Amino acid sequence: TMLLWMVGWAVRLIVVGLSLYASKEIRMLAVHNYGYVIHEFDPWFNFRATQYMVDHGYHAFNNWFDYEVWYPLGRHVGTTVYPGMMWTSSAIYHTLQDIGYPMSLNDICVLVPAWFAVTACIFTFLLAWEVYGSANAATAATALMSILPAHLMRSVAGGYDNESIAVTAICATFYFWVRALRSTWSWPIGLVAGVSYIYMVATWGGYVFVLNMIGVHAAALVLLG
């Protein structure tokens, strides 16, 4: 019985590990074929905005009026973007510089979608385990999330757009929310869910979907006693 239990866990860990590896490698296909290139239109603006934040700091970024877009009116960038992605990439860039592993901002912005896709799979694993209490369900959920087309199309390396980070924030918010409901002593984790949701709001305009789902869930719990 112990041997079967160990074999079962070994298989699950292998499947989860392969799923996480596949989630990264599938999204890295464009990089393997064409190099570290940012593609599409919005990702290029996002990269340019991130470069401005890295070069001039957050305060200057928040007050930046960009005359090179929305011609001839221009654009006040600080009030017309969701800066969470720029914060994240800038923090990664400065952290790597500080610890002695410098990487170009272009490469970081190219890789961020793939990195966060793996993180989204990890939070999906945790969420499924918390909801079902089953390692098999969590393993299957991780495998599905790693190749889910709706997630894949928004998290390809080089597709430096808001959703690539926002999906991870969504999964994290849902996990921490559900985890906070485990027992009466788990409520402090709700604070972490709140912080995760604030990060989600700063990252993507689709935050209203998360708020609606949590609201509906909370209302259902009240009605069900």
In short:
The chain is mostly helical.
Q: How would you describe what is shown here?
A:
With 225 residues, this protein is mainly alpha-helical. It is built from eleven helices and two strands; from the N terminus they run ααααββααααααα. It has helices spanning 2-27, 29-34, 41-56, 58-62, 84-98, 105-132, 135-147, 149-152, 162-180, 189-203, 207-223; strands at 65-66, 75-76. Helix 1 (2-27) packs parallel to helix 7, helix 3 packs across helix 5 and helix 10 runs antiparallel to helix 11 (207-223). The longest helix has 28 residues, at 105-132. It is globular, with a radius of gyration of 20 Å. The mean pLDDT is 94.
The end-to-end span amounts to 40 Å
Task: Please describe the biggest sheet, giving its number of strands, its sense, and whether it closes into a barrel.
Answer: 2 strands, antiparallel
Instruction: Spell out the helices and strands N to C.
Output: HHHHEEHHHHHHH
Q: Using the CA coordinates, give the radius of gyration.
A: 20 Å
Q: What best-fitting shape do the alpha-carbon axes yield?
A: globular
SS summary, helix count: 11
Low-confidence stretches: none
**Strand content range:** under 5%
Work out the number of β strands.
2
Helical amount: over 70%
> How is the quaternary structure best described?
single chain
Q: Tell me the structural class.
A: mainly alpha
Mean pLDDT: 94
What's the arrangement of strands in the largest beta sheet? 1-2
